[in-house]
Amino acid sequence: MQTGRGDQGPDRAHWVRLLPLVCASLTGILSTGAVSATVRAPSLLDCDAGDSVTVLEASPTASLAAARESRAYWLNRGLLKWPGATVADSYKLYYSSNGRLALTKGVLHGADGALALVAADGIPAAEAVRFKHVPDGVVLRVAGGDLARVPGLLRGQAWLVREDRRGTPVQTTNLQLPGALDDLYSGAAEAHDLGVGVESGRSRFKLWAPTARDVALCLYGSGNGKALTLAPMQREDATGIWSATQADDRSGQYYQYLVDVFVPGVGVVRNRVTDPYSLSLSADSRRSYIADLAAADL
User: Fold this and answer.
1) At 44, which helix (H) or strand (E)?
2) 3-class secondary-structure state, position 213
3) Which residues pair with 22 in a beta bridge?
4) The model's pTM
5) From 82's CA, which of 52, 124, 219, 267 has a CA 20 to 30 Å away?
6) Is the pLDDT of residue 18 over 70?
């Protein structure tokens, strides 16, 4: 087996590990900050599927070119910066819960809605230092009444769009997320129990995955047998941490996560992954191992 577990707080590089990995259920309307649930729910069959990645809803082909570029940055939950862009233009943040945005012949399709953005007066000192490497460009502000929608937008598809005076889209870009994620979910830095824990006869699982739309827990009796149980995980909105508890000691068994997440240029996908906080892994790093490191037999 392979062991190792470093610092578990979500530092700036933390989201980079998790976003492509999990990059991964609330229901409702995106305009309220929730993620629309139109894709199929996870099942026990997903725990044993041949492919570890399943496309649940593909993005339209017309969105693929735009998906390759992320020239703009979230500086924090309410500020965005687009290097090279000017204040003379107008900007909107278009969003789609299931990745349906597409731009064809100057017409933008598939949006659930859009947030109007205005030029910001400046950049706070902390953000100016952190993003000093970002070239000059327009700094945009999300209206105060729209800030509550930002967490929902980060769990779906969002394009920053430059428009001409007639409102015709001229240029689009994705946004780089760490500034917004660190601002919104800084409380997760205090969580030092991410991963699996066994105590008082219970098995507890925690995963930091703030951009995930849904997370479920697959439990296995061995490193290569079929799944025994599929359990839903609950999201803590303040931290972006998903958790589940089994009312028994699962030591010696194995687990994986099913994580639904939007991937630019692909769509909504379901990833079956091991735990980035694994105590240990089965052969070929196929499944994460459940153990209490303080147990006498270890």
Assistant:
1) helix 44-47
2) coil
3) none
4) 0.85
5) 267
6) no
